[in-house]
Amino acid sequence: MARRFLCLVSILFFMYPFFSSHAFAKSPPRRPITDEEIRTRKDECYTDIQSGLWGLHCKSSKIMKENCALRCLSPVCYSLVYEGDPLEEGEIDYIRSQEYKYCLHKLSLGESLDGVKGSFNY
Fold first, then answer.
1. From CA 91, how far away is CA 37, in angstroms rounded?
2. Who contacts 83 (Cβ-Cβ below 8 Å, separation ≥6)?
3. Are 64 and 57 within 8 A, CB to CB?
4. Predicted confidence band at 17 (pLDDT cuts at 50, 70, 90)?
5. pLDDT at 30
6. I want to staple 69 with a disulfide (CB 3.0 to 4.6 A). Which of 20, 45, 50, 91 is the partner?
7. DSSP strand E in the chain: where?
8. How far is 52 from 65, CA to CA, in rounded Å?
9. pTM
């Protein structure tokens, strides 16, 4: 009986670090997504679009492909920035582009997306 108790105490002693509060502490701080990571992921989205995974409408024009790529890269950021007013043929929208990138940045850090929309209005 004493041996069992000693064995149990020994097991608990060695297992303690795995179950202590230190083991479940916050994960290390996240780092922001890099421009290179964004380009790589967006290229992967373009590949998926070109292969037809996003449907024929995404291949119907250059601007539709861009809208689909932005949605693929981050559905949350696309919805926040572009959903109500998608890019149109010939449109270059630097302000929303910056908002989208800012959204990706905040999302990668696990931060709230409050205030992203309209943060670059001059």
1. 25
2. none
3. yes
4. very low
5. 82
6. 45
7. none
8. 11
9. 0.74
